Amino acid sequence: MLETNFMGLNLKNPVIISAGPWNGNGKKLRNNLRAGAGAVITETIVSDPYSKTGEQIAFNGKGLQNIRFYSRFQLERWKEELKIAKSDGGIVIASISGHSPSEITYLAKKLEKYGADGIEISLSSPLGEGVEIPCSDSEFVFNVVNDVSKNIKIPVMVKLSQHVNNISEVSKAAKKAGASAISAINTIRCILGVDIDKEIPLLPTYGGYSGEPIRPIALASVASIAQSVDIPVCGIGGIGNYEHVIEYIMLGASAVQIGTALMLNGDSIIKKIVNDLEKWFKEKKINSISEICGKALEKIKPLDELALEPMTCKSDNKKCEEGCNLCVEHCLENAIDTVNDNDIKIDQEKCIGCGLCIFVCPINKLKIYDES
Ligand SMILES: Cc1cc2nc3c(=O)[nH]c(=O)nc-3n(C[C@H](O)[C@H](O)[C@H](O)COP(=O)(O)O)c2cc1C
Ligand code: SF4
Ligand code: SF4
Which GO molecular function, any one, fits this protein according to its record (predicted)? Predict the structure, then answer.
């Protein structure tokens, strides 16, 4: 039911563990496969590993900043690590990054030889002071993907970032160059906060923001990519439960990746998400991922169509026992009033159907209706 063919790879379920330190060696990769992941992606492998250690992570209870610079292992070490990772079977994708097509292709060829089932090219990390990230440049993306895919037989996925303001164009360039899939998003450039007593930022340089708060941003990127290209999309960002996985699938993703939630909760979260997904599919009598893939994407409307649909707000039952008055205080159009001991009165001339009162009402008393 959850099995899916993702870029030519047969996954037992669509839950992939993303590139990061939780997949930093063979044992960790194997462990995440044992915990039930459909596939795992190595921490990004580069030709010139960064050896500095020190503070790399800050968390504010909601989102997380990291300034970790990829795998610290030399490329050759990954021969042994991939062997360990694959010792029980399962699908292992190697994440790679670099500065030029030839450098990235060299890594891809080696990792194919070492046994990787696929390659993810990560061109989207926002760490450090530079705001320019390589995947902003469609021509560079084309050249890298073209070179890599001409030189290896295993599938190539390209990992993009929300920072790309031409995400449709970059996605099309990746597809044209031979990418089998696109994944999005990487972390978002951030400074998590400032210690105001010490007068210092929480971490000493710009880093990448991940976890729960980035999901709405990532959902939009995934939807834009899915609207632009017809190759599979892998949704990443803030996934912490099965409902989040379904959201991504309904917006056009064929598979998803999880990172921060695994780091914060441990590998039991993989099993929980996969089991809950299976249960939901059974309850809804859905037989395959393709049955729901893109269902919500079809319903995204162009902005100018929205003006044609006048909506208005009504209270199902005029009397409100709660009487908290939040709807009255929040309505930006001054359309709501309470009269006669908490009778809710909505001025239909003033109400523009914005929906704000519905979200502030603690008892779901108000509803939006199509005016027609
Ligand atoms: C500590 C940390 C290290 C990461 N390392 C990598 C990496 O090596 N390569 C990569 O492409 N993405 C890396 N990422 C990004 C994640 O794979 C993922 O794209 C991002 O965190 C959003 O997903 P999440 O909210 O589920 O974590 C890292 C993220 C974190 C938090
Ligand atoms: S839908 Fe918007 S405009 Fe209408 S009553 Fe509610 S808050 Fe006011
Ligand atoms: S926000 Fe809801 S509960 Fe509060 S007064 Fe308005 S309708 Fe009643």
Answer: NADP binding
Domain residue limits, the chain: 4-299, 303-370
DSSP state of 213: G
What does the alpha-carbon distance between residue 175 and residue 154 come to, in Å, rounded to a whole number?
A: 15
Q: Which ligand is nearest to the CA of 354?
A: 2
The pLDDT score that the predictor gives to residue 224 is 97
Question: What residue type is 224 in one-letter code?
Answer: S
CATH 3.30.1490.20 fits domain 303-370: no
Residue whose Cα lies nearest atom 2 of ligand 2: it is 354
Name the residue of 320, 332, 333, 369 whose CB sits within 8 Å of the most ligand 2 atoms, as the mutation to test its pocket.
Answer: 333
CA–CA separation, 206 and 280 (whole Å): 39
pLDDT, residue 314, reads 83
Q: Residue 151 pLDDT > 60, yes or no?
A: yes
The verdict on domain 4-299 having CATH code 3.20.20.70 is: yes
Contacts of 339 by beta carbon, 8 Å cutoff, 6+ apart: 345
329 lines ligand 3 (CB under 6 A): no
Can you give the pTM of this predicted structure? 0.92
Q: How far is CA 356 from the centre of its chain?
A: 27
Nearest Cα to Cα of residue 274 among 82, 10, 38, 31: 38
Residues in the chain: 372
Question: Looking at the CA of 326, which ligand is closest?
Answer: 3
